[in-house]
Design goal:
heterodimer, A: mainly alpha, two-stranded antiparallel ribbon, about 75% helix, B: two-stranded antiparallel sheet, 13 helices
Chain lengths: ~325, ~300
């Protein structure tokens, strides 16, 4: 009862607010006299509506058109290059022939390394923020830190990695330096997704676990985390999609244009798909041979990133339906 | 008793570990600031803050070198402004169309597709700009090169679209249904309801979308590095090559000797960039809070 009364009170308050706003505008004020006015005004309002809705809809078509153009060009110019040899062989003849295997593997190493570091850190941070910390200034400061870390330009992460991992810690331009830099890039994504997933676990789960005499950690470990796991995984997958395509953070920390062989250890530099595309169109002396390879590489990267994101989106919608 | 003690010790240890770990993001942010200051400050001592920010000559490898970053800062703002001219009307219009015009079934397809495309890596946009957009711009304006501020603005604008559309759509969809019902009850048409009730109610959320899109555009590196042309002169037109801050750092860091003036100057540019994007994010956060309060208080 009181619920519906609240709702109707809300609605009437909104009505007052809206009519206040409407009264400020000329057309609607005249429209309130519309009963005696001719049908002309109504027709004009309808016509304006038709025009404006068409205009608004056309902006959506422009958006979708631009994005289709982008994906279309990469597919059209990259598809011809793709073959089994292209993704399974080493490059030959100064990057003008052969495949991109080292770049594919390099990207996988960097992403795997980054996730090994960032996933535990991110999930643990989220558990602290949701399950352990008293909500107050401390949590707010950490959250501001997370939000602002997410907004730092990617090239700044690259400089940080260069100064700290490559130079100060002496790790050199290597898989480790690149993976650690990418871990910082992806950390905010993982923290936010995990926090959201953990918050969505019903309080009754925790209460039931605590009522059975479980400690706080046992509750988190056996009641909260298993239930939040699909959401946490989705966040991690989205994070993978984000860093697989990053170029600027690995430019000075991990990536190299040319290696004759696959890296032997995590302290060696690597090729990576994203950096390879950039290098192919800005370095080297045979653009006519390199540009098609760049489009082929871009298509592989695009398929990888969009595929990963698609998996995350499907997982999320299933998970939301299951709730 | 033995068991209970062990459990208690473990619980305490775990909560200490979690507390420490939770500070890691904050530590990284502070670390970034410290590194930028440590590596960037020496150049201010060398040239002075005013000469660094307002100097018109960027000749880092001349003898003697000159580290005036006005051309780079101006280029960043020019390219970002150009990108917003495309991304704001098209993006906000698309968001309104998705949430207000499309039938539900189309909406559930279009929104995820746009969000999916937000994940396209910037280097792919750069390749597209370089190989597809630049020749178009060159031919259309009869220029000697297609790598110009205009080209970079167009590509950055397209790139910012998914971000702007997605966040603005969330904001518009969050406006309570009672608002539009009240407006319809007064006899307003659908367009009048959208333009005078729903969009004004969502305005602070839409502003957040625009600010985050701007933050993304000004901090974007690979696209401008590949497409903007790279000439370090104070821009006077959209049709000339420019060199934004991010592109300068990415292009020159490889050649700058570690610990030299040029190296410090590049970190100082990163510091300027960091401060600018931080400001964007802070303002966006304020507007997000304001929007949440407004919708919740309604």
């Amino acid at each position: 009862m009181s619920g519906s009364r609240d709702a109707s009170r809300d609605a009437s308050r909104d009505l007052v607010a809206v009519s206040g706003a409407a009264l400020k505008t000329k057309d609607v004020r005249t429209a309130s006299h519309a009963t005696q006015a001719s049908g002309d005004l109504w027709k004009r309002r309808r016509r304006r509506q038709t025009v404006m809705l068409a205009l608004i809809t056309s902006t959506l078509l422009v958006t979708l058109g631009f994005l289709a153009l982008l994906v279309g060009f990469v597919v059209a110019r990259g598809a011809g290059v793709i073959s089994w040899e292209f993704i399974s062989e080493m490059p030959r003849n100064a990057m003008t022939e052969g495949g991109i295997l080292p770049a594919i593997l390099g990207t996988l190493y960097l992403v795997a390394g980054a996730m090994v570091v960032a996933a535990p850190l991110g999930v643990a941070s989220a558990v602290f923020l949701t399950e352990y910390a008293h909500q107050g200034p401390l949590v707010r400061v950490i959250r501001i830190g997370v939000n602002n870390l997410a907004g730092v330009p990617s090239v700044v992460f690259g400089l940080f990695g260069l100064a700290v991992f490559v130079k100060t810690l002496g790790l050199g331009v290597s898989i480790v330096s690149g993976a650690l830099t990418l871990a910082i890039v992806v950390l905010p994504t993982i923290i936010r997704a995990s926090e959201e997933a953990i918050r969505a676990v019903p309080a009754s789960y925790r209460e039931a676990s605590l009522a059975l005499g479980a400690t706080r950690w046992q509750t988190v470990r056996y009641a909260v985390l298993p239930s939040a796991m699909p959401g946490i995984l989705t966040g991690c997958i989205l994070g993978i999609g984000r860093i697989a395509g990053e170029t600027a953070p690995i430019m000075f920390t991990a990536a190299t244009f040319y290696t004759a062989r696959l890296p032997g250890s995590i302290f060696e530099e690597v090729q990576a798909l994203a950096y390879h595309i950039y290098a192919l169109v800005t370095e080297g002396t045979h653009p006519e041979a390199q540009v098609p390879i760049a489009f082929g590489t871009a298509l592989v990267l695009l398929a990888l990133v969009l595929g990963v994101n698609l998996v995350a989106i499907i997982l999320r919608s299933r998970y939301e339906k299951a709730r | 008793m033995e068991l209970r003690n062990r459990v208690r010790i473990r619980e305490t240890l775990i909560s200490i570990v979690l507390t420490v770990v939770a500070f890691s993001s904050l530590a990284f942010l502070v670390g970034i600031v410290l590194v930028l200051f440590r590596e960037g400050l020496p150049i201010f001592r060398e040239t002075g803050l005013g000469a660094f920010i307002f100097g018109r000559d960027w000749y880092p490898t001349y003898d003697p070198p000159s580290f005036g970053t006005l051309p780079l800062i101006a280029a960043s703002f020019l390219v970002t402004a150009g990108a917003m001219v495309i991304a704001v009307p098209v993006g906000v219009g698309s968001a309104i169309a998705i949430s207000q015009v499309l039938p539900t079934r189309a909406r559930t397809v279009v929104k995820p597709v746009v969000e999916l495309l937000a994940g396209v890596p910037s280097v792919v946009y750069g390749l597209f700009g370089m190989q597809v957009m630049a020749p178009l711009v060159m031919d259309a304006f009869g220029l000697p090169t297609g790598l110009t501020a205009l080209t970079a603005s167009i590509v950055l604008g397209i790139m910012a679209l998914p971000t702007v559309v997605s966040i603005a759509e969330d904001a518009i969809s969050a406006v309570p249904g009672t608002y539009s019902e009240a407006s319809y009850a007064l006899g307003a048409t659908k367009w009048e309801t959208m333009s005078r009730v729903i969009v004004p109610a969502a305005s602070s959320g839409i502003l957040t979308a625009v600010l985050l899109g701007m933050g993304r555009a000004i901090g974007e590196t690979m696209t401008v590095l590949m497409v903007a042309g790279g000439a370090a002169v104070v821009p006077t037109s959209f049709l000339q090559p420019v060199r934004p801050m991010t592109a300068t750092i990415a292009a020159e860091m490889g050649e700058a000797p570690v610990g030299g003036s040029h190296y410090h100057a590049l970190f100082a540019i990163a510091l300027v960039l960091f401060v600018v994007t931080l400001a964007f994010n802070m303002v966006a956060e304020v507007y997000t809070l304001r929007f949440r309060r407004r919708v919740a208080g309604a």
